[in-house]
Write a structure and sequence with these properties.
Helix content of chain A: 25-40%
CATH topology of the largest domain in chain A: Rossmann fold
Oligomer: homodimer
Number of helices of chain A: 12
Largest interface: A-B, 54 and 54 residues
Structural class of chain A: alpha/beta
Strand order of the largest sheet of chain A: 8-7-6-9-10-11-12
Low-confidence stretches of chain A: none
Distance between the termini of chain A: 27 Å
Radius of gyration of chain A: 22 Å
CATH architecture of the largest domain in chain A: 3-Layer(aba) Sandwich
CATH class of the largest domain in chain A: Alpha Beta
Largest sheet of chain A: 7 strands, parallel
CATH superfamily of the largest domain in chain A: NAD(P)-binding Rossmann-like Domain
């Protein structure tokens, strides 16, 4: 009887590592669960999850013996955690091991966008440096005012890096934090008003949906740059697109979107954005560490030991 | 009689500021000096310089009353300073005010190259994220070993920023520096052997020509990334191109080249480089501050006061 079911797309060498450790069944998509015979679903006590597809209570009910969903990724907004808790199912994620990479990409997108580096690269490659002259001046970034929306583990890593660029650090978070003199703001609009650059680092899910509203974007303004490495759902994407198209927002660096990977094609027409394909944690080292932590949670569960990184 | 001659290309609003302050003559290129009548050249005591064209002793001799060359830029490798000194001509540059911008671009090129951000952007824009799947994994940068070649004012700013990325800092410099535990290496090859990323921040000119030799590039190796924000002349460009083409060097981020702006077109065919059009200090804020410092040196000279930033 299969005790572990791996749902989603598991690239090598992580598929092999799962196979070696747990001999799981593999399923590409949770939507295929219902088509499995009841006897194949019974007895599955743990799921290794690597998909952005929704896992709701109905999906959980198809696995009557389920006790653990071990998610790959720090974000687990695709899982209905309340439904899991109600069914006595524990959920784990893979926090911390990806903080550095995500913070690196956030800072990189801010620098790239502020210094117009993609446009400058194109300027050379189009022969304009030689034929037309120097690339137009852009703006100084060091010493600017950076606002971190969500000063959790990733937000903190971003702030620490930006402090190295002599930036003034502002933040809004659910709770006031111990910081080296950074300024806490009461809400996202007040934060956006106070800064040049707003970096979104909150959790995804219903509680933060649309947190970066049209009002926040307006407060950031035509010189402001918005960086999002959290989830597409956190930003009012319609308002963002309108503001970028109208020049009411200076620019954006986005690693996450609504409807990934088929994002709104209007993004591709914008001259004032840096776009990345949700690759913030996508390094060999970090994806390996995330997969290891997912397997460690599975192994702890199967051995009856405490879970390493439970979320409920 | 014209006391001040402005040689080179001065964009607005700096041309106007020069005009308002000094009513200089304007000359696009030092090569045009010889064609000027002797009486127009006599009496010129100060030159405001904004060109990468060579200013040698012969050019100086065309201005028999010259006492000051106020250069725009921290680098002054186009000026034969020894020839100037021999003629009693002082040279000034515009240091420090550009350190932040240059360091920002150096770090940004390292992040962009290491995280393959231009390729990831193209991946999305070509529709491959939706049609093919996630962008291939790249590499973790935070926590890596960074080598700074030349720990002067700009090198120090780069190191301080990279320390915020938890990098281990190594350096080679003409003199050992007071650092927070960074590792000093005896020569560039030893430095390159010790690190993942080598950032070139030495002065240009004859003394550093070819300092980043084929041997240094080999020591950096197929996983190494070379960043150059100094001068193209510091790197053996033929060796660099060969190593990048053969994959014997992992990648490069280059803001400076030999033969700017008509750089070797082989660079444009490489998949493993980030290229920028010598724009490290090219922000509105910093170019304004550099022009102000150039004018302040001119004003100090004309008022008989000490020069602010003399180099000889």
């Amino acid at each position: 009887m299969t005790k572990v079911l791996a749902i989603g797309t598991f690239p090598e060498p992580q598929r092999t590592a799962l196979q070696d450790g747990f001999a799981p069944g593999f399923l590409k998509h949770p939507g295929a669960l219902a088509a499995r015979p009841a006897e194949a679903r019974a007895g599955v006590s743990a799921v290794a999850l690597r998909t952005i597809a929704r896992i709701d209570g109905a999906a959980m009910d198809l696995l009557p013996d389920l006790k653990l969903i071990a998610n790959f990724g720090v974000g687990y907004d695709q899982i209905d955690v309340a439904a899991a808790t109600a069914r006595g199912i524990k959920v784990t994620n893979t926090p911390d091991v990806l903080n550095d990479d995500v913070a690196d990409l956030a800072v990189a997108m801010l620098l790239m966008q502020g210094r117009q580096m993609e446009a400058a690269s194109a300027w050379m490659r189009d022969g304009k440096w030689a034929s037309t002259g120097p690339f137009p001046l852009n703006r100084k970034l060091s010493g600017g005012r950076a606002g971190i929306l969500g000063l959790g583990r990733i937000g903190r890593e971003i702030a620490d890096r930006l402090a190295g660029f002599k930036m003034e650090i502002h933040y809004h978070s659910r709770t006031r934090k111990q910081t080296p003199g950074w300024t806490c703001h009461a809400d996202p609009v007040a934060l956006a008003e106070a800064v040049d650059f707003l970096i979104v680092a909150v959790v995804g899910g219903a509680e933060t949906e649309g947190l970066v509203s049209a009002e926040v974007i307006a407060a950031l303004g035509p010189r402001g740059i918005l960086i999002n490495i959290a989830r597409g759902s956190v930003v009012d994407e319609a308002a963002l697109l309108e503001a970028l198209e109208a020049g009411r927002l200076g620019g954006a660096g986005l690693d996450v979107f609504c409807n990934e990977p088929k994002i709104d094609p209007r993004f591709y027409a914008l001259p004032n954005v840096v776009l990345q394909p949700h690759q913030a944690s996508a390094t060999v080292e970090t994806r390996g560490a995330m997969a290891q932590l997912q397997r460690d949670n599975l192994a702890a569960f199967l051995a009856g030991k405490p879970l390493l990184t439970p979320v409920n």
